[in-house]
Amino acid sequence: MNVIIDICVVPIGVGVSVSAHVAACQDVIREAGLEHRMHAYGTNVEGPWDDVMAAVKRCHEVVHDMGAPRITTTMKISTRTDRVQHMDDKVSSVVERLGDKA
């Protein structure tokens, strides 16, 4: 089963800047070979369920290894059984409806 997730991993107890931790998670996702799009408050990731969830787990392991004593993660998960849909399809569908207003 394929999945699209929106994930935001927040290390706690590491100070104000978390960009190094975000970059480390981006490396994990890239190394897993998963399609992903980072945005201002998280990352969209798509791929096979087990691969995506393994990457989420690996992000936690890496961020803990970087010294974060605690991590809070929010995640939205989308699956479909009626057809194959990619994250870019979801965006282009709305852009098409917006037409010239996009």
Automatic annotation (TrEMBL):
The domain of life is: Bacteria
Domain Thiamine-binding protein intervals: 5-94
Q: What Pfam family does this protein match (any one)?
A: Thiamine_BP
How is this protein annotated for GO cellular component? cytosol
Family stated for the protein in its record: Belongs to the UPF0045 family.
**Protein name, please?**
Uncharacterized protein, MTH1187 family
Say which species the protein is native to.
Answer: Halomonas caseinilytica
